[in-house]
Amino acid sequence: MTTTCRKLLAGLVLGLGLLLSACGSPSPGTLGPAAGAGTGADGTPAARLSAPAYTLDSGDRIRIVVFRHEDLSGEFEIDGGGTFAMPLIGEINAAGLTARQLEDRIATRLKDGYLVDPQVSIEVLNYRPFFILGEVNAPGSYPYVSGMSVINAVALAGGFTYRAKEDGIEIQRGGSGAPSVVVTVDTPILPGDILRVPERFF
To answer: What is the residue-level pLDDT of the chain in tens, covering all 202 positions?
Structure first.
């Protein structure tokens, strides 16, 4: 075999190895095993759970500012149906929208026969609570603070009990019907998350 052929073959093998390696790696923003982390009760490895852009839902309180129109500005609470009512334009569905998307929706409604070029700004004043259950000293619902992680939530709930499986904490994101994911203690949490600290069996 000539030197050129050997170089070509080596290049092909290296390229194939890199391709297979890329196929086996989790893509950015997806769940993947967290190195050195614990496992759930069924042996599921802990995962990296990224925090997506925050979306509004029932229980959130927001401040809306329509520039140069104080009569349209104010504080509003999103009701159980995911809606709230504003002067002039009436009921608006905010559930599942980011603050930026809601700004755009309000501006579009105001443009429809009311204002020429509405400038809308939204700030979340109070987030809906998160829930922590299982082997903590004070399980229940707690007010969310921006930037919280799992360990902050555990601290708010009085810390772990002596029976807690500290490396098997699970999060349900998206309601009680959502799948549970085992996470690490530094995982960011979001309003509405349900955390469960399981019991260890040894």
So the answer is: 444 444 433 343 333 333 333 333 323 233 333 434 454 455 555 555 666 778 999 999 999 999 999 999 999 999 999 999 999 999 999 999 999 999 999 999 999 989 999 999 999 999 999 999 999 999 999 999 888 999 999 999 999 999 999 999 999 987 778 888 999 999 999 999 999 999 988 7
For the 61-126 domain, the top CATH level (class) is alpha beta
CA dihedral 112, 118, 122, 128 (to 10 degrees): -10
Tell me if domain 30-51+128-202 and domain 61-126 are identical in fold.
no
As a CATH number, domain 30-51+128-202 is 3.10.560.10
Domain segments of the chain: what residues? 30-51+128-202, 61-126
**Angstrom distance (rounded) from CA 140 to CA 138:** 7
Q: Looking at the whole model, is its pTM more than 0.70?
A: no
How many helices, marked H, and strands, marked E, lie in the chain? Answer: 3, 10
Phi/psi of residue 123, each to 5°?
A: -130, 135
